[in-house]
């Protein structure tokens, strides 16, 4: 990571985790992914790298992120539009997340039951190397709280009459 001293051992350990060729572009992408705290799109990571002066194509970013996922360096989820979002995985263990459909906030969730279920299906179905995808989405508490404070027209709830329902709020928003 630029500006942060890393011993040769730390650098070689990080480099050893990079799948395929250990190019400057792959190192830069891994660093950008590691600095992100939420899930990020390939395009936003590509833009971050370009702003830092790293010359890398968008297709290379997509291919490298897929390799990072395969190697256990990144987790991937899909947003409500189907776009893949990526997040650095600091440990080798598989992780599931609850993703806010409104703001994109993500929180890791305990998934022992899901993992046990997937393993039980594999054990009883005569399949090997079973993989699974579990997408958990919802509306986080902050977004839910914000939605309750405003009506559909974006007005504070305090400006609505006490007996105005959602339909009346929509009708008044058209005026």
Structural commentary:
Strand 4 and strand 5 form a beta hairpin. The protein contains 7 helices and 6 strands; from the N terminus they run H-H-E-H-H-E-E-E-E-H-E-H-H. Residues 1-13 and 160-175 have low confidence and may be disordered. The chain has helices at 8-17, 24-35, 42-51, 58-70, 112-125, 141-149, 166-174; strands at residues 40-41, 74-78, 84-88, 96-100, 106-109, 136-138. 15% of the residues are buried. By secondary structure, the protein is α+β, with helices and mostly antiparallel strands. It folds into 2 domains: 8-139, Orthogonal Bundle (Arc Repressor Mutant, subunit A), CATH 1.10.10.10; 140-175, no CATH class. The strands form 2 sheets. Strands 1-3-2 form a 3-stranded antiparallel β-sheet. It starts with 7 loop residues before the first helix and ends with a helix. Helix 2 (24-35) crosses helix 3 and helix 3 crosses helix 4 (58-70). It is flat and about 45 Å long.
């Amino acid at each position: 990571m630029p500006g942060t001293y890393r011993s040769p051992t730390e650098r070689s350990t990080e480099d050893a985790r990079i799948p395929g060729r250990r190019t400057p572009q792959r190192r830069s992408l891994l660093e950008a992914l590691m600095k992100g705290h939420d899930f990020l799109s390939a395009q936003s990571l590509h833009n971050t790298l370009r702003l830092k002066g790293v010359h890398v194509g968008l297709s290379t970013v997509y291919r490298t992120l897929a390799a990072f996922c395969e190697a256990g360096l990144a987790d991937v989820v899909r947003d409500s539009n189907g776009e893949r979002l990526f997040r650095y995985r600091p440990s080798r263990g598989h992780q599931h997340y609850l993703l806010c459909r409104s703001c994109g906030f993500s929180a890791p969730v305990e998934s022992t039951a899901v993992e046990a279920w997937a393993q039980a299906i594999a054990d009883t179905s005569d399949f090997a190397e079973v993989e699974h995808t579990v997408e958990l989405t919802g509306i986080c508490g902050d977004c839910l709280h914000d939605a309750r404070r405003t009506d559909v027209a974006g007005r504070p709830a305090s400006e609505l009459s006490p007996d105005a329902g959602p339909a009346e709020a929509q009708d008044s928003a058209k005026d």
